[in-house]
Specification:
single chain; about 40% helix; 3-stranded antiparallel β-sheet; mainly alpha; elongated; binds zinc ion
Length: about 100
């Protein structure tokens, strides 16, 4: 998650205000990888407004978080993003914010 580099907590919280911001970010990263559905192995899809992908052939819909660390998180993707940010940020970065 290169975007997290050199960001402080305020910048990070501004970038990811809601769960949809996080899903959009995940979808952008996944768009760079050749796509294939895990269930049907089809490759053609449409991206929906919630950043999930729908297969053009069998209309199976896959969440943006499928095959990521954030799949099935119980407390929301944004909170999971913040946990990752805290774990990947050196303590020194927090001292700059305070
Ligand atoms: Zn399909």
């Amino acid at each position: 998650m290169y975007i997290f580099k050199s960001q402080n907590l305020l910048e990070f919280s501004y970038r990811f205000k809601v769960d949809e911001d996080c899903k959009e970010y995940i979808a952008l990263l996944k768009a760079k990888i050749p796509f294939k559905y895990t269930r049907c192995n089809h490759r053609d899809c449409q991206t929906r407004t919630d950043f999930s992908r729908q297969c053009n052939i069998c209309i199976y819909t896959e969440s943006a978080t499928v095959e990521t660390l954030f799949r099935k998180v119980k407390y929301g993707v944004r909170k999971a993003f913040f946990i990752c940010f805290e774990m990947s940020t050196p303590q020194k970065a927090y001292q700059q914010v305070i």
